[in-house]
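Exercise 7.
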Amino acid sequence: MSLAALASFQVSLANTANQWLCMPQAEKHVIYNVNVFDGEKLASFNRVVISGGMIVPDKDTDGATTEDGKGAFLVPGFFDAHAHVYGPPALTALRDYGVTTALDMGTFPYQDAIASLASMSKQGYTAVYGSGAAATEKGGFLSGIPGFPSDSFVTSPKDAVAFVQARVNEGVDYIKIFINETSEPGTNLQRVIVGSANSAGLRVISHATSDFAFGEAADANGLFITHAPKDALLSSARINKIVANKQVAIPTLIKMRNLLVPHVPQNFTYSSGSVTAMYKANVPILVGTDCDDGKPFVKYQGSLQEEMRLLVAASMTPIDVLKGATSLPAKYFDITDRGVIAPGKRADMVLLDGNPLTNISKTGEILKVWIGGIPTVPS
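Solution. The predicted structure, written as tokens, is:
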């Protein structure tokens, strides 16, 4: 986040504080007559009970309010596994499209831009986790952003360790490496970052938009590789390495399409085809968009649904796409209090007017969203 954007964010935070405090509080509530996709499968039960912001066993419901779902489909709240969250307006936009948890990939400074939003989830707004500024090379793309922290420039093993420690000190939720087209920081430095992060209990996401960068990300062996190659189909050897490493893909096909199509349309087939190949090889695939405020490529509103459609077009089944937006990001990012509809889990849910298991576009027909049990009807 630039300094100007941060200033705008802080003004927005102050202007909307009173609205947050007026959000309705969760109470014991029963939603019945619904088809429930629980994050793994179509469930056998057709009602869900919420109390204190959590999903609770369906037993003592005396005094509960009730709501007829009228045969609609209830699914876990969606994750966007690659987002850039620029302040409170983003939380509202994401929530309106069913995104109840956003995983921010690079907005900085972490405490001011991301951690400051954490309490808003308790008021019914999208929850946000973040990496803070990514590791990169000086002179690369990120270094041109005003205010980009110098401790993110990694040119030696000492820098790599110091970078991770700086992010740990900020309290980040995971670490991001931005692999430039020149492959910097190089593989050896990436390995030091991954090792240091893992020692600190943090997962690593590697940004890779070329075949070569994917190879480096596989060699460095961080848990996640985000984006898809724009210059070649991933080879079997590359994919086999990713499988052997048990790495996870976050392709952001909507970003790759919007980035490439206006200029070199045929290149999107490399991105989409690589997703098809990874999926067939059983690489776990999460749904992420690389959304920001829409300038220049991917807006908050509806981009997750478009990403789901692109993944289905790349041969993924709707149920696996839904898992990639619900239970799988919860599992792999270890945010295990959500992502499924089950007793003991946070009541993050989306009510859909149609069956997303047969038509993924139904994920955009949102009737209601619950975050921590607090309901919202999208505007």
